[in-house]
Each structure stands twice: as structure tokens, then as C-alpha cells.
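Reading group handout, session on sequence-to-structure problems. Before we discuss, look at one worked example. The prompt was deliberately terse, the way you'd type it at a terminal:

> structure Hexosyltransferase

The input record follows.
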Amino acid sequence: MQIREGPARRAAPSAAGALRSPMSAMMLAMFATMASFYVAGQLWQDAQNRVYLIKELDRRTGQGQLAISVDDTLKVVACRQQGKRLASLEMELAAAKHEGFVGKYTPETNGTHSRKKPLIVIGIMSSFGRKNYRDAVRKSWLPTGSMLKKLEEEKGIVVRFIVGRSANRGDTFDREIDDENRSTKDFLILDDHIESDEELPKKTKSFFANAAETFDAAFYAKVNDDIYINVDTLSAMLETHWDKPRVYIGCMKSGEVFSDSTHKWYEPDWWKFGDGKSYFRHASGEMFVISRAVAQFISINRSILRTYAHDDVSVGSWMIGLGVKHILLIFEHVLDSQYACEYLNCKVYMSGEIA
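And the output record:
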């Protein structure tokens, strides 16, 4: 008798598949669940990273500090009110001038004592080894002792020799300047500046910054120690401009930019002045004057103001971006030396102002 096993054998795989099917579905469901958690975790982590990066970007760029405090708001309102008040006073002053009023530099009161706000601080650029030049200035136009104090108190003219420090602090050069200053009391020593002929532009910047912080004057002047000034004439001229907020006074010139490194007036940054190789309009370095607002600007921004090879060009470059009045001065009116005016070649300019 033959036994047919075909049907039984065909049924066996179906039974085994039926037993494995629920297990496969469960594993698939578990795998899908774990994959879902993994994907969700990655998305959450990416979202947290994006939030962190956005906050960090805002912090570094300052965009996240859009809100201002109540105190800041009150300050803004107060500044606007002061601005309106200033505009009103300017209109009143203009009307008064139209009626014939002429402004005059007058003393200010401080409590019960009367004091005169300095009209001008004159910084005479000097250096080590130039005592003979300083003595010549003292014997000509700069008074000494009690007369120097009288010049400050009665005429509001403060004059100081400007000298930096030696690269070797406390050496013979420093001691000589300190000894001379103890005797004459007519120095402004720049402790933050190393004395060097190549660093004159930085020295001039340091002078204006320190003078603006030390003296509350209306004007500040830079003068070389071989220039002789008629202080009375200079004072009278400045009194006609004291009510202007931003002025730049001097013998205005341009001049060639020299790219030859062997030339006396070589400018390392000559390529910045264009193909014409000509400087912009600036006051000659022998003497120039700026108003208090301009000196304060230099003091605040001293760390970022660019200097060139020459101090007059450097100061002139700072004036380009400011709303200053350029006062064209005939120096023969304020200099005692006719030769100095011829040397400065200032007679070709008329006194006046340009925007």
C-alpha cells in the first residue's frame, strides 16, 4: 500500500508561516517605533542647535538687544528736548545777530567765584634737545611766571610746551624735561606718547585728546616751536568764531603726494590718494586751530583715527567726514614773523570760511 505524503508536506510550510507571521509584525512594529524615536530625537537636537546658533549670532551682532530700558527711553526723550531747546536758542541768536547783536567772549561763574573759561589752549610742539627754541619763545611772545598765570586768568589763553616721554623711561631726557617743567610750569607732558620725530602725527593726536580732557576751552591750537604768535590778534580773531560749534582754522593748502621713499616728504600711503597724487585740502602744519567739539571727537575716537606720514595731513583727513567750517586764515595777521608767513605761502588766501 502506498502512502501519499504530498498534501501533508504542503500543509507544513503554511502552518510554520502562520506561526512566524505575528512575530515578524511585532518586530517590525518595534523597529518602526525605535526609528521614530531616533528621528524625533535628531530633529529635536537639530532644533536646539539652531536656537543656540541664532542666539549666539544675535549676541555677537547685537541684534538680540533690541529692547531698551525705561532709563534709556527717558534719556532719548531728554536728548530730543535738549535738541529742540538748542534749535530754539540758535534761532533766537540768529535773530539777535540780524538785529545787530555781536557776540563777545565773556567770563563764566562757578559758585561764588568768577572764573574765565579758557578761550584757547595753545600746544607748542617741542622735543628733547630743543630748550634753546623754548627759551626763545619765552623771551619773545610767551610770558613766564606770574605773567603766564595772568595770561590764562585775564585773557583765557593757556599755552603749554608739548613733549612726550623717552623710550627709556626715567632717563636723562625725561629728567631734564621734568626739571625744566618744575622751574617754568609751562609743559603738558604726554605720558602716553613716546617722543620721536616719526611719531609727530600721533603726538598731535595725543595732544588734542589730552588737552580736551584737561582744559574746557573753546579752541585748541597746535603750533611749532619756531613759530611766533601775536596772542592778542589771535584772541581777537577767535572771538569772532567762538559761537560756531565745529571749526577748523589754518592756512589751507593741498600739495603733492610723494611716492619716492628717498624724498623728505615721502608718504608711505601715497597710493590711497588716487592717480593724481594730490592731498586734500588741509591746514598747514606750522599752526592750525580746532574748536572744542572737534577736539572732543578726536579724544573719543583717538584709538581708531588713522594717521599718515604728516600731522597736518592726518588732522585734515579727520575733518573730511565731519561737518566742520574750514576757516581760511591769513597768518600774517596772527604771526609776528613776516618770514614765517612767506614760508607758509599763506598770502594767496583770503580770510573767510567754506562749508
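Points for discussion. First: The two ends are 129 Å apart (CA to CA). Second: DSSP finds ten helices and ten strands in the chain.
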